[in-house]
Amino acid sequence: MSLLNISNLTMQFGGLVAVSDFNLELKQGKIAGLIGPNGSGKTTVFNVITGFYKPTQGNLFLDGKEITNLTPDRITAMGLTRIFQNSRVFRDLSVFDNVMIGHHIRMRSSPVAAVLRTPGYSAHEKRAIDQTMLLLEQLDLAVHVNEKAGALPYGLQRKLEVARALSTEPKVLLLDEPATGLSSEEKDEMIDFILKVRQDYGLTILLIEHHMRVVMGICEEISVLNYGKTIATGNPVEIQSNQAVIDAYLGEG
Amino acid sequence: MFRLPTRSTMLSWGLAAVLLLLAYIGESALDDYVIRILNMWGIYVILVTSFDLVYGITGQFSLAHAGLAAIGAYTVSLLTLPPDAKLMSFLLQAPHPLISNAQWPLLPALLLGGVLAALVGFMIGAPALRLHGDYLLIVTFGFSEIIRLFLINIPSITNGAMGLKGVPYLSGLRWTVAAVILAVFLTNRLITSSYGRALKCVREDEIAAEAVGVNLYRHKTLAFVFSSFFVGIAGGLFAEILGTVDPNTFRPALTYAVITMAILGGLKSLTGGVIAAGIYTVMSELLRTVEAPRMIFSYNFPGLPGLRQLAFAVMLLVLILFAQRGLMGSNEFSWDWLLSRFKRPGTKKEGGEA
Predict the structure, then answer these.
(1) This prediction's pTM
(2) Is B205 close to A100, i.e. CB distance below 8 A?
(3) Tens digits of per-residue pLDDT, A46-70?
(4) CATH number of B8-290+304-340
(5) CA angle B60-B64-B70, nearest 5°?
(6) Where are the domains of chain B?
(7) For residues B9 and B286, what is the distance between their CA atoms, to the nearest angstrom?
(8) Do the Cβ atoms of B213 and A102 come within 8 Å?
(9) ipTM score for this prediction
(10) In chain B, which residues have their Cβ closer than 8 Å to the Cβ of A105?
């Protein structure tokens, strides 16, 4: 049984078919990649999976439960979240608060209970604080705990976004170009970071990335999109030698 | 390591007790004019605090304050007016039987005023908070005016455009101070809770907030209803102090005054709001002289009502040009900060436990 199952997904904006008949089966613990030239519909697929777009057609299942028309916050609560193409940390909030917010979805106390600081609320808050500090330490972000997220260097902001996503306790994590905008050295660091996080937190990952070294280095399965159509699927070796993929990237020769 | 019931909390409770005691003494010791100014300050503090929560913290620009305050003001006036005083007000039309004989004590009347304002706040917020930015602003502005026009057009309950006179002065400085303490304390508690963090995330980035599991609509509505409750309370206290209520009191100008104070204090700072409300109240009293008729070079200038607003407009311009973060930005008063500077005079009050 696959953890994330997407069947016959089509996303249309007016007359434009951004993604057509996209299928994906993501097994527990795998890292899959989604690649393709600019404008091929990769981020659209992400936006549909995470509930920001309602698909024109198709069904999505997370761990056997349908998530097709749910809102993003519900989907996150069910165990699937993402990081964005451009850093979307909460810039004006501290690193600590950025990670703490992930625990809010498991908040069972009402706002009134929160204002009154009932024992139930305080227990949740204390647990969230402990787990946040632990997570920040594990990801080497603890030294920045009181800094504003917007003041961090870009590489750390990307890490913080992953940390924030982890605090929602996801089963599936969608990474939209995690290495873009990073220096070559930071890219290597990011690869190690993703592999470590996946190992430590037992994550299943779907990754969009342009940088081939990153994709080929960590993905076990790859889907290639071009103009919204899936033109190839397979492991990195197969993809690298696939004629359709080479044509899509380099133009037909 | 982040929030313990410590010295700060004790000091906050102590300060609250001292303020209440001062209010109690001040009631008989101070003259009416000063009491009135202090009362106005308190009411403005509540209004600014609730505006800060909705705009500064949650990022939803709402112009519904005046209308929501009117709900509280009318509720309190109608419920506390003695039946014979109602008959004196309602000259054109007899009051509706539902209210003609009502005479409640102040506390339940105030609370009902708050609850009704919260309810109306929910009715406005439920549809309007699906909108963003300018659209939200226009719709809430519209609702605020609709409330006012509605009040004019149900004369059997509100006495229409003539308003209500002779609202008994049941409150007083201690009521205002108690309401201020409660509003600032509870709002601060909300802001520093897990829900408050979620509200700030909504302000910072709605898309990212949704991606980390924050239900945008629920949280925006929460902030709006919470703030509306206190706007209703402030409106009720306002009616008590004015002694009369009429729809013109709740024109958009009241909302603009609140926004001016909020910007002056720093939109994200409750402390700033407390200080700015004080400055605004005192300034608008001092500037009364500007509007008085006077002789300048043997020419008799007549008084120009509304000239005060010009001064506030200039202040607002200067703020926007040179000090966008206002007096306090997003900083809050904290006891640790105060104690670290020893006896530094000047800073007034705030129920925070930073």
Answers:
(1) 0.90
(2) no
(3) 999 999 999 999 999 999 999 999 9
(4) 1.10.3470
(5) 150
(6) 8-290+304-340
(7) 36
(8) yes
(9) 0.92
(10) 212-214
